[in-house]
C-alpha cells in the first residue's frame, strides 16, 4: 500500500506516461523496463545486435546519411546524426562496432516524424559507426569511421 | 667531420616534418568540425536553467533571494553584468570578479558564510549552487562585448598584480602561466593553448570560460579553471576568491577587452 | 525524481524542430570508483515525445549515450504556442517529464 502511495505521489509531480502507468498499477517499474530492447542492447557482437534488432544483414544505401566528425577529440561525447531519404523510414538505430555493446540508441519514428535525428554517444576507441534504418519493412545502413583521440568509457 | 651525423639528422627531420605538418592540418580541421558539432546544445544550459531558479529562490539564514544582488549594474541587473567583470566595487572597496562578488551577495543578503566556498568542494553543496548561478549569470552576457572598466586606480593596481602573477615563475617545475600561455602556437596534446598576452588569445580564453567540460561532464567556473592551472604548474592552489585569482582575471579581461563573450563555453 | 530537462521547440514552414538536453549521469556500469568497486549502471532506457496526444518520437537508449544526453528531431505540424512533452524513464525506475512551448 505504501509503495502504491509513494508511486502516486511521485506521479503527481510529473506527466510521465511511465510514472502514470506505474501509479495506476498497470505497469510495474520492472515491467516498464521490459519494453526496452534488452537483447539488442546487451549483444556483444555486431551480428547478434543486428539480429536482435530484426535487421539481419542490412544493405548499404546512399539514401542513409550518417553525419559525424572524422575525429572526436573526446570519446565521451561524439555527436552523431542520421538522415534517411528512404520513403517510410520507421526506425533508426546507431551502433558502434568496437564498443563493449554495439547498440547505442534506437529511434522509432511515427508517421509525420522526419527521418532525421541527432544525438551524442560514447566511443571507447576509434571505430566504424553504423546507422541502421528500417524503411518499408526492410533494413538499410551507412557506416563511417570516427577516430577517437581519447577514449570515452574510462571516465 | 663531426657535423655530418647532425646534418643527416636534420635532413631526416626535414623530410618527416612535411607530411607531419600536413597530417596536423587535417587533424586540426577534424577537431574544428567536432567542436562545431558540439557547440549546438551545450549541456551548460542545464546549469543555467538551475541557476536561474536558484537566483530567485529564498535561501540561507536570512531567507532572501539574490534578486537584489548588485553585480555592478545595479541591484538585480544580470543582463550584461559578467561582460563588465571584474570591476571595482565601492561598497566592499575591492576589485571583485563574478564569484567573489556572488560570495559578497550571499553573505550580506542571505547570510551564507564564505566558508561554504573557501572550505567547500567543487560540485558539492553550496559550491554546486554557486556553479549553477555562475552559469546563469554568464549566459546573460552571451554574444556581448567584453567591456571591463580600467579607469579606476584599483583596477590598474590589480592589472599590474595580475601581470606579475602571470609571469611569476616558481614551483618544482619553475613554471609560470606564461610558460604555456605566453607564446603563439603552444599546445598540450591536441589542445591549442591561447596566447593570453595578446588580444586574440585572451579573447578566446577569457571569452569562453566558464565552460562545460565534456571529458568529465562538469561545469567549471573561472576560479576552478585558474585553480586547475595552478595545480598543473604544481603550485599550491589559491584560496577561493582570493586576490591573485581576481588579479589574473583582470589581466586577462583587460587584454580581451572588445572581444566577444562566448560563455558558457564547451570544452573537450 | 530526475532533474529538469532543457527543451527547445521551434516551428518553421510546417515542421517543428525539437532539441532536448537531459540531466542524467548515463553511467555505463563499466567504470570503477576510487576504491576499485564497479559503479553500477544508471542510464535512461526509454524516452518519448508527445505533441498534444500524438506520440512524435519514441527512443531507447543504452549506456553508451553520452552523459547529459542531447537529442534533436523534427516532426510535421506543430504551431507556436502548442506544447511538446518529453518523458524518460531510467533503468532504476526513475522518471522525468518536462514540457516546452513551441516558439
Characterization of this structure:
- The complex is a heterotrimer of chains A (155), B (268) and C (103).
- Chain A is an alpha+beta fold and 155 residues long.
- Chain A has two domains: 2-34, no CATH class; 44-148, Immunoglobulin-like, CATH 2.60.40.
- Helix content of chain A is 23%, strand content 35%.
- Chain A has five helices and nine strands, in the order H-H-H-H-H-E-E-E-E-E-E-E-E-E.
- Chain A has helices at residues 2-12, 17-23, 29-34, 38-42, 46-52, and strands at residues 59-60, 64-67, 71-72, 78-84, 89-96, 103-108, 116-121, 127-135, 138-148.
- In chain A, strands 1, 3, 5, 6, 8 and 9 form a six-stranded mixed sheet that branches. Chain A has a three-stranded antiparallel sheet with strand order 2-4-7, with no helix packed on it.
- In chain A, a hairpin with a 2-residue loop joins strand 8 (127-135) and strand 9.
- By secondary structure, chain B is mainly alpha-helical.
- Chain B has two domains: 1-40; 44-267, Orthogonal Bundle (Cytochrome Bc1 Complex, Chain D, domain 2), CATH 1.10.760.10.
- Chain B is built from ten helices and seven strands.
- Chain B has helices at 3-39, 44-56, 98-110, 115-118, 125-139, 153-167, 177-181, 199-206, 222-232, 243-256, and strands spanning 87-89, 94-96, 187-188, 191-192, 211-213, 218-220, 265-267.
- In chain B, strands 6-5-7 form a three-stranded mixed sheet.
- With 103 residues, chain C is mainly beta.
- Chain C has one domain (6-101): Immunoglobulin-like (Sandwich).
- Chain C has strands at residues 6-12, 15-21, 44-51, 54-61, 70-76, 83-90, 95-101.
- A four-stranded antiparallel sheet of chain C has the order 4-3-6-7, with no helix packed on it. In chain C, strands 1-2-5 form a three-stranded antiparallel sheet, with no helix packed on it.
- In chain C, strand 1 (6-12) and strand 2 form a beta hairpin.
- Chain C is elongated.
- Chain C starts with 5 loop residues before the first strand and ends with a strand.
- The chains are: A alpha+beta (155), B mainly alpha (268), C mainly beta (103).
- At the A-B interface, strand 3 of A face helix 1 of B.
Amino acid at each position: 500500500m505504501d509503495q502504491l502511495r509513494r508511486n502516486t505521489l511521485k506521479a503527481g509531480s510529473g506527466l510521465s506516461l511511465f510514472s502514470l502507468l506505474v501509479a495506476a498499477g498497470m505497469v510495474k517499474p520492472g515491467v516498464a523496463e521490459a519494453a526496452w530492447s534488452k537483447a539488442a542492447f546487451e549483444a556483444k557482437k555486431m551480428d547478434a545486435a543486428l539480429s536482435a534488432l530484426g535487421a539481419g544483414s542490412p544493405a548499404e544505401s546512399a539514401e542513409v546519411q550518417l553525419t559525424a566528425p572524422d575525429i572526436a577529440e573526446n570519446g565521451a561525447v561524439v555527436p552523431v546524426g542520421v538522415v534517411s531519404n528512404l520513403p517510410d523510414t520507421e526506425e533508426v538505430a546507431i551502433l558502434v562496432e568496437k564498443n563493449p555493446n554495439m547498440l547505442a540508441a534506437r529511434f522509432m519514428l511515427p508517421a509525420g516524424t522526419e527521418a532525421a535525428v541527432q544525438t551524442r554517444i560514447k566511443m571507447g576507441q576509434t571505430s566504424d559507426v553504423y546507422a541502421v534504418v528500417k524503411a518499408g519493412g526492410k533494413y538499410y545502413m551507412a557506416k563511417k569511421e570516427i577516430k577517437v583521440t581519447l577514449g570515452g568509457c574510462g571516465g | 667531420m663531426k657535423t655530418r651525423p647532425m646534418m643527416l639528422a636534420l635532413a631526416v627531420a626535414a623530410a618527416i616534418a612535411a607530411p607531419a605538418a600536413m597530417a596536423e592540418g587535417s587533424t586540426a580541421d577534424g577537431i574544428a568540425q567536432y567542436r562545431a558539432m558540439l557547440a549546438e546544445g551545450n549541456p551548460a544550459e542545464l546549469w543555467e536553467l538551475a541557476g536561474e531558479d536558484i537566483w530567485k529562490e529564498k535561501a540561507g539564514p536570512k531567507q532572501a533571494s539574490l534578486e537584489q544582488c548588485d553585480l555592478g549594474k545595479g541591484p538585480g541587473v544580470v543582463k550584461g553584468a559578467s561582460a563588465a567583470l571584474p570591476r571595482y566595487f565601492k561598497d566592499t572597496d575591492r576589485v571583485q570578479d563574478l564569484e567573489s562578488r556572488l560570495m559578497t551577495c550571499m553573505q550580506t543578503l542571505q547570510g551564507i558564510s564564505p566558508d561554504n566556498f573557501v572550505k567547500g568542494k567543487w560540485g558539492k553543496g553550496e559550491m554546486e549552487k554557486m556553479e549553477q548561478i555562475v552559469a546563469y549569470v554568464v549566459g546573460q552576457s552571451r554574444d556581448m562585448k567584453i567591456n571591463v572598466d580600467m579607469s579606476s586606480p584599483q583596477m590598474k593596481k590589480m592589472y599590474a598584480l595580475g601581470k606579475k602573477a602571470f609571469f611569476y615563475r616558481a614551483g618544482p617545475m619553475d613554471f609560470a602561466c606564461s610558460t604555456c600561455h605566453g607564446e603563439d602556437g603552444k599546445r598540450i596534446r591536441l589542445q591549442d593553448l591561447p596566447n593570453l598576452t595578446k588580444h586574440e588569445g585572451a579573447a578566446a580564453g577569457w571569452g569562453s570560460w566558464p565552460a562545460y567540460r565534456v571529458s568529465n561532464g562538469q561545469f567549471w567556473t573561472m576560479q576552478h579553471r585558474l585553480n586547475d592551472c595552478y595545480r598543473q604548474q604544481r603550485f599550491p592552489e589559491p584560496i577561493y576568491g582570493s586576490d591573485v585569482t581576481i588579479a589574473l582575471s583582470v589581466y586577462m579581461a583587460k587584454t580581451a577587452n572588445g572581444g566577444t563573450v562566448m560563455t558558457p563555453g564547451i570544452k573537450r | 525524481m530526475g532533474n529538469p530537462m532543457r527543451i527547445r521547440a521551434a516551428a518553421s514552414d510546417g515542421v517543428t524542430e525539437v532539441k532536448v538536453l537531459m540531466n542524467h549521469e548515463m553511467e555505463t556500469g563499466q567504470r570503477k570508483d576510487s576504491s576499485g568497486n564497479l559503479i553500477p549502471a544508471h542510464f535512461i532506457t526509454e524516452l518519448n515525445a508527445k505533441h498534444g496526444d500524438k506520440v512524435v518520437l519514441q527512443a531507447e537508449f543504452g549506456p553508451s549515450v553520452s552523459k547529459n544526453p542531447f537529442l534533436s528531431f523534427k516532426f510535421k505540424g506543430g504551431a507556436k504556442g502548442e506544447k511538446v512533452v518529453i518523458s524518460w524513464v531510467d533503468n532504476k525506475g526513475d522518471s522525468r517529464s518536462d514540457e516546452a512551448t513551441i516558439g
